[in-house]
């Protein structure tokens, strides 16, 4: 989807699927920011931690020289900042006239620790890379924003999936650091139950593959990675769209092989283990009352990872006095956990949040 014809075609299909008009978003600029002697919560340190990030637009300042238009968008597990250039997101929000038009906003799209172009195990340290967690990841992003980009207060912080969880943590740690928050597709409680189970199953599958060899593999542990990707496919899927997409046994059987190959090709086994395990210490539930900025929190009813029948979102939302919680009903247009990236489904909520946080 990110190259020429493929991206253009995907944009047309996304627009047709959601009843919109395809519009091209601009290409971002890529940057690296290096944090010296970065300390992790585990007590480990890296002499240099690289944070790779993309930007769209330019900073605008007020009379005191403070940046007023910065928008930080945080990606999900296994993703990168570039994932937000997908047509169903960028061509809705970043296109000229969109809610987050780069002509108006300075958009920051970082790669989290362990992801994309940021420092990660596959750079060479493999399983001796520091055992980072979500707190380390948001600390690195906060350093990038405040020290690297000199942004004291964001106009908006958005996050999807893992980025949604990072958004809750950020809003508790630095309540005044953003005028508004918009977490999408997560729950602000410890990852347990089925959500922890599928993550552990995926990690165990990779580590049980003899080819993994404690992380010092000569060739990729294909069998373990295949099982892990099988679990990721199911965790991210939504029953209705998948039934419509794959209505026969023959279509399912023809689809899974190429889809697995596509997903497995860019994945490093050690990076995946770290990415999935980084959620092990996540639990913002005890400090939700610290969140004081306007927030709109959005989940979808067909999300396998954050199932609404648990009732957790409604329970915790009562503690969030400045938050509007929205549950998007399941439909042929929703995409399960991935609904967070189909901006046409929730852009009206974003518009309302921007208005009420002016």
How many beta strands in the DSSP annotation? 8
Molecular shape: globular
* Largest β-sheet summary: 8 strands, mixed
Percentage of β-strand residues: 15-25%
CATH class of the largest domain reads: Alpha Beta
Can you say what the CATH homologous superfamily of the largest domain is? Answer: Alpha/Beta hydrolase fold, catalytic domain
Share of residues in helices: 25-40%
Strand order of the largest sheet: 1-2-4-3-5-6-7-8
Quaternary state of this entry equals: single chain
CATH topology term of the largest domain: Rossmann fold
Average pLDDT number = 93
What is the CATH architecture annotation of the largest domain? Answer: 3-Layer(aba) Sandwich
Rg from alpha-carbon coordinates: 20 Å
Structural class based on helices, strands and sheet pairing: alpha/beta
Tell me the number of helical segments per DSSP (H or I, 4 or more residues long).
Answer: 11
Written account of the structure:
With 358 residues, the chain is of the alpha/beta class. It folds into two domains: 4-189 and 287-356, Rossmann fold (3-Layer(aba) Sandwich); 195-275, Rna Polymerase Sigma Factor, Chain: A, CATH 1.10.1740.110. 36% of the residues lie in helices and 15% in strands. It has eleven helices and eight strands. It has an eight-stranded mixed beta sheet with strand order 1-2-4-3-5-6-7-8, with helices on both faces. Helix 5 runs antiparallel to helix 6. Mean pLDDT is 93; it is low at 1-22.
């Amino acid at each position: 989807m990110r190259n020429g014809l493929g991206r253009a075609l995907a944009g047309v299909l996304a627009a047709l699927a959601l009843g919109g008009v395809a519009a091209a978003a601009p290409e971002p600029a890529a940057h690296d920011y290096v944090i010296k002697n970065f300390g992790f919560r585990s007590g480990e340190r890296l002499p240099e931690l690289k944070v790779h990030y993309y930007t769209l637009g330019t900073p605008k300042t007020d009379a005191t020289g403070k940046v007023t238009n910065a928008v930080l968008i945080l990606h999900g597990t296994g993703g990168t900042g570039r994932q937000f250039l997908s047509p169903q997101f960028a061509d809705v929000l970043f296109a000229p006239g969109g809610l987050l038009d780069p002509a108006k906003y300075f958009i920051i799209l970082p790669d989290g620790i362990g992801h994309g172009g940021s420092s990660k195990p596959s750079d060479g340290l493999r399983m001796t890379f520091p055992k980072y967690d979500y707190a380390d990841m948001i600390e690195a992003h906060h350093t990038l924003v405040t020290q690297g980009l000199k942004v004291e207060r964001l106009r908006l912080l958005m996050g999807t999936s893992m980025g949604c969880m990072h958004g809750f943590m950020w809003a508790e740690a630095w309540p005044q650091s953003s005028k508004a928050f918009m977490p999408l597709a997560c729950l602000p409680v410890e990852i347990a139950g089925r959500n922890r189970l599928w993550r552990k199953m995926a990690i165990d599958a990779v580590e049980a593959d003899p080819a993994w060899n404690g992380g010092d593999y000569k060739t990729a542990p294909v069998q373990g990675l295949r099982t892990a990707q099988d679990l990721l496919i199911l965790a991210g899927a939504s029953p209705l769209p998948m039934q419509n997409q794959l209505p026969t046994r023959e279509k399912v059987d023809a689809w899974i092989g190429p889809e697995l190959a596509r997903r497995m090709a860019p994945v490093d086994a050690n990076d995946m283990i770290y990415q999935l395990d980084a959620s092990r210490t996540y639990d913002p539930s005890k400090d939700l009352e610290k969140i004081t900025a306007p927030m709109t929190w959005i989940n979808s009813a067909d999300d396998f990872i954050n199932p609404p029948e648990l009732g957790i979102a409604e329970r915790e939302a009562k503690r969030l006095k400045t938050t509007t919680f929205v549950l998007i009903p399941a439909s042929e247009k929703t995409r399960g956990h991935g609904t967070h990236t189909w901006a046409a489904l929730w852009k009206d909520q974003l518009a309302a949040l921007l208005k009420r946080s002016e």
